[in-house]
Amino acid sequence: MASAAAATAAAAAASIRERQTVALKRMLNFNVPHIKNSTGEPVWKVLIYDRFGQDIISPLLSVKELRDMGITLHLLLHSDRDPIPDVPAVYFVMPTEENIDRMCQDLRNQLYESYYLNFISAISRSKLEDIANAALAASAVTQVAKVFDQYLNFITLEDDMFVLCNQNKELVSYRAINRPDITDTEMETVMDTIVDSLFCFFVTLGAVPIIRCSRGTAAEMVAVKLDKKLRENLRDARNSLFTGDTLGAGQFSFQRPLLVLVDRNIDLATPLHHTWTYQALVHDVLDFHLNRVNLEESSGVENSPAGARPKRKNKKSYDLTPVDKFWQKHKGSPFPEVAESVQQELESYRAQEDEVKRLKSIMGLEGEDEGAISMLSDNTAKLTSAVSSLPELLEKKRLIDLHTNVATAVLEHIKARKLDVYFEYEEKIMSKTTLDKSLLDIISDPDAGTPEDKMRLFLIYYISTQQAPSEADLEQYKKALTDAGCNLNPLQYIKQWKAFTKMASAPASYGSTTTKPMGLLSRVMNTGSQFVMEGVKNLVLKQQNLPVTRILDNLMEMKSNPETDDYRYFDPKMLRGNDSSVPRNKNPFQEAIVFVVGGGNYIEYQNLVDYIKGKQGKHILYGCSELFNATQFIKQLSQLGQK
Amino acid sequence: MAVDITLLFRASVKTVKTRNKALGVALGGGVDGSRDELFRRSPRPKGDFSSRAREVISHIGKLRDFLLEHRKDYINAYSNTMSEYGRMTDTERDQIDQDAQIFMRTCSEAIQQLRTEAHKEIHSQQVKEHRTAVLDFIEDYLKRVCKLYSEQRAIRVKRVVDKKRLSKLEPEPNTKTRESTSSEKVSQSPSKDSEENPATEEHPEKILAETQPELGTWGDGKGEDELSPEEIQMFEQENQRLIGEMNSLFDEVRQIEGRVVEISRLQEIFTEKVLQQEAEIDSIHQLVVGATENIKEGNEDIREVPHL
């Protein structure tokens, strides 16, 4: 009994990725729970999705897994589709006008045998009637086998990380929320979109959270709406989505999770920060989204004969999935460690390869030496095991190749732009330790980094200083930046932002930290490996808490802190509708979800993961309305600064 | 958690129906709705392909049921000593094996046939892809069912081998671990095994059988009731020698057994790989042929240039 309880407690904190995958698989199995049966008859079906559905499915299920579920074809809703007789079709789309129109068209054209309609978020009654109308007109009512509201309107990227959407992220971007010319109705739409996704998230998680948010921000608006929506749903006993049987494992944990809603504006330095951990670097420096990284392979330094066509660069893309053990282990590691580990993996792989080759040569002796025959029977067994382990070996090789390519690409960027220097310097700025090099020097240095890097550095400096630099200094900086080729619009916006936040509250401090450069030569440099990191500092990260992590720590552990004391408190399960600033629950929370309204990134995520690693039995999920890297964020700031 | 709104949908259909009736809107549905649906259905190409695919699947299903039904009896090793219920003679087992093999062959032929036909009539890329995938599924299903068959066949062969080993005259405890290797590496072509093993197993038996009468004739030839001590000693030594010979033969046979099992398994893996490579080699061949042509044409073009 005790172990069962422990197991379910662990399951209660089950990853959101698992839950969403299970829900998808059930949907693909005609909305019946999926059981693996080794001698089951094959059933085949066609999957139709829109771009939203595609974004949700692609990080979770590979094409092979779709095949295993019996899907022969997967097609976009708004594409040319031919009629395929005698095949059931599973639809997974958002209930928008154009999608509904296209579905009605499909019904009229009798494309498939039967239709299983699944809507990513709840469909309205009137749209349902539109479909009913089309089905009647096409005499296809009996063909519509099942209709479901899936409540899966969010994208899960990691076991403990999710994003709201990818397709229409401009609608809910930082810029959309913070632009000065936004109207009330537009703001309402944005908030509704965010709340809808968060609601779907909690339905899938199967828990009703306790909500805390800061006052006077977009996060507060989201909190109010979410609370209202959850409350309405709980009151409606007949249709409540949070009843006992749907909660499942969530019932066993006596604690409800904590939802912390923060606004991007409490910390603008982190999205601009240069980083040093593997996953965050890949996101910052390469083209990486929805767990897929796209690389352009440079053609190398070969001499092409004069007059020949220039070699086309190969484009390669890799999926970084939960199956990739190396990625799972090292995505949060500092980059030099990653380089070393790839080296190690390569060496162990080569050893195994040699073992197989040795067996091959022994086999070659077979007919010649009688005395060796007694050894052979043993070796036949070894050979069989070597052959059967070949697929595993090949897979290992593929992963090593993948990470070698990715890490090499990252390293090239680091070396070209001197990202290690930027990282170290920014850490010092953010922790207010003394700077050994003047900011102006770095900005004016033509070798170090792109104009964007310099802009990022300067903005971080500007955000983190207690006192604004004097006019003369500012002019100097501006001139240096413009000389380096930077666009000054983001600065405009940051100035406004700083003025605004000064009025509201004291700017967030980043805590103290040091980065210790490792003076000793690392093993990497000694072995003359591919990852020649000469000139690149081998920096070691010391754990520091970013503002978001600090806020979470205060709220989760019920610590008293002027920063978070006046956060609002919502409990959708409480009968009385008013919020009080006094939390009812005095115990620290075991599970928390941090959601950043306005956008987040992998640096914050990694910081939270590191924070929770030290705490036994506690779990954190990280979510944001959109995921951007520094380049994208600067672009938004620039657009905001132009107005 | 997903919410089933199918009932809501049906209710909406009713609502729309009544609303349209009230508004007097003429629809394709209406009074003749149900009849229309029937008419709508029949001209639609029912799909020769899918009905045949389903036929193949039901055949394979029958094979699977047949195998599962008799599985227990088939495996039951000590059927001779058990009660009548659940007994199965070896001939029956052979019959099952044969039938299963014929069945599997016909099924895979049917699948091949479907494959060639599927691509003939259809023009649409999507339908082609769909059909290829369907056929892949069916083949996979057949493979899984065949695995059932080969598993139980392998168990049967192993039991026969074990039985023969136990039934030998030498009761010496042979706790060698060869047994584990031969039982683990179960091959997919056990027919080869069963042919070779009985052959090798019979050999030592024959030797034993031969030596028995030999001793017997010697004993009779002397015509004495008692044997002199030297003769007893001699016979004992001979016994020991024969025992030693038998043992070494036995060892060798065990070794060969183990190796043959493993080799057949390796061969199976290699056949698979070779078959996989076949398709690739074909495409490489095509590419090379194409490349040769291109180079030829290129050369000709280059030769023409000075003439301009």
UniProtKB/TrEMBL annotation, chain A:
Task: Report how it sits in the membrane.
Answer: Peripheral membrane protein
Q: Where in the cell is it found?
A: Cytoplasm; Golgi apparatus, Golgi stack membrane
One Gene Ontology biological process: protein transport
Q: Which domain of life is it from?
A: Eukaryota
Q: Which keywords does the record carry?
A: Cytoplasm, Membrane, Protein transport, Transport
Give the family from UniProt. Belongs to the STXBP/unc-18/SEC1 family.
Report the function annotation for this chain: Plays a role in SNARE-pin assembly and Golgi-to-ER retrograde transport via its interaction with COG4. Involved in vesicular transport between the endoplasmic reticulum and the Golgi.
Q: Which PANTHER family match?
A: VESICLE PROTEIN SORTING-ASSOCIATED
Supply the name of the protein: Sec1 family domain-containing protein 1
Organism ancestry: Eukaryota, Metazoa, Chordata, Craniata, Vertebrata
TrEMBL record, chain B:
Predominantly, its location class is endoplasmic reticulum
| An example molecular function term from Gene Ontology annotations | SNAP receptor activity
Q: Where is the composition biased (Basic and acidic residues)?
A: 168-182, 192-208
**Entry function:** Syntaxin that may be involved in targeting and fusion of Golgi-derived retrograde transport vesicles with the ER.
GO terms in the biological process aspect are: intracellular protein transport; retrograde vesicle-mediated transport, Golgi to endoplasmic reticulum
Which taxonomic lineage does the organism of this UniProt entry have? Eukaryota, Metazoa, Chordata, Craniata, Vertebrata
Q: Please list where the region (Disordered) is annotated.
A: 168-226
Q: Which organism is it from?
A: Colobus angolensis palliatus (Peters' Angolan colobus)
Q: Which UniProt keywords apply?
A: Coiled coil, Endoplasmic reticulum, ER-Golgi transport, Membrane, Protein transport, Transmembrane, Transmembrane helix, Transport
> Localized where?
Endoplasmic reticulum membrane
Source organism, top-level taxon: Eukaryota
List the GO terms this entry assigns under cellular component, sorted alphabetically: endoplasmic reticulum membrane; SNARE complex
Pfam family membership, one: Syntaxin-18_N
| Domain SNARE-complex protein Syntaxin-18 N-terminal positions | 4-96
The record's family statement is: Belongs to the syntaxin family.
The molecule here is called: Syntaxin-18
Name the InterPro entries for this protein. Answer: Syntaxin-18_N (IPR019529), Syntaxin/epimorphin_CS (IPR006012)
